[in-house]
Amino acid sequence: MIIEPVARTVAFKPGERNVFFHLLTGCNLSCRHCYINPSQHGTNTLPLQTVLKWLKLFARPQQETNLILLGGEPTMHPDLAAIIRAAKSMRYAVTVDSNGYLFHDLLHRVTPSELDFLSFSLDGPDSAVNDPIRGENVFATCTDNLQKAVALGFRTSLIYTVSALNIDHLHRMPELLAKLGVQRFFIQVIGLRGKPAAGKPEKGGQWQVDPLHWLDVVPGVAREAAGAGIHVTYPKVFLDPEDVFQCAGRVAENFFIFPNGRVYQCPLCEDYPIHSFSIEDDQLVQRNGLNEDRFFALDIPEGCVMNKLLQPDTLDYLADGTPGHRISCCLLKQEMEAVG
Ligand code: SF4
Ligand code: SF4
Known about the structure:
Layout: E1 8-10, E2 17-22, H1 38-41, H2 48-58, E3 65-70, H3 80-89, E4 92-98, H4 106-109, E5 117-121, H5 127-134, H6 138-152, E6 156-162, H7 173-180, E7 184-189, H8 195-198, H9 211-227, E8 231-235, E9 238-239, H10 248-251, E10 253-257, E11 262-264, E12 277-280, E13 283-286, H11 292-295, H12 305-310, E14 326-327, E15 333-336
Parallel strand pairs: 2-3, 2-10, 3-4, 4-5, 5-6, 6-7, 7-8
Antiparallel strand pairs: 1-15, 8-15, 9-14, 10-11, 11-12, 12-13
Helix pairs in contact: 2-3, 7-9
Bound molecules: iron/sulfur cluster (SF4) (2 copies).
């Protein structure tokens, strides 16, 4: 018997460590909502030996650490297969987040047992929705390679970045994911970083989705995908009145590493030189000054302080001046899976 899937908030677990490692900022695509900001994070590709030294800085032999290898497009790194193998030997659980082009024959240079998850990004259930956002022919290439990965036995996931451009097509994704054989579905919310921070998608348009529209669509689609046997994760975004606000910067260990050595704890801060740490001479150094970590300690009625500072348009207020919704930490997730 399948029990109706129910959303559960994934609380920050003490001791859990997530390392998001941008190996390079280069990419073969030019998505309209790309959050990569070369003026802040450089244009270099980290050499293999440097990657290995930096991985050692964050590895913990006594416990598994989640490692997400990113770019740019991480499969453009010529040594990605060697990086994956080395990371596994350091007790990382490794995920590669790819745009689906899978350069350097990745599917044949690592085995499914060496890679915990291969993640693909699509922003629409067909080329008519996806390609105007991610580029011509991207839907066909990505789904083609995804099917090859599934056929070879890789565990796959798919990331869909929800914006005003594609939220009304999200409901068609569960059917596609089931057809493709994807095991995990990550619904993300567009952040105003990189290109979206620089301007609206078109005259009179906007990137962000209003709260009621999000709540009207996303949990229902998640339930449907979970009902099809797919494990779904999506950001909490709006806290319920009974929810306690927590900033991951205070209670969790997340590191967002860029190839110029910046290490952030909060992804919302990535457009600004306020990173908590930097890697200098292959050593992790905590930075002094007014950086992101000084803001994590501030308690405000709106919830996330960085959201209020950087994305105030996402907030709405009642007549008495109190916030209509409290915004959760962007790293707080909901999970849904069918229980059989
Ligand atoms: S695939 Fe990723 S890195 Fe490349 S342009 Fe798109 S969003 Fe940016
Ligand atoms: S998104 Fe907000 S709550 Fe989460 S780590 Fe950043 S500042 Fe803290």
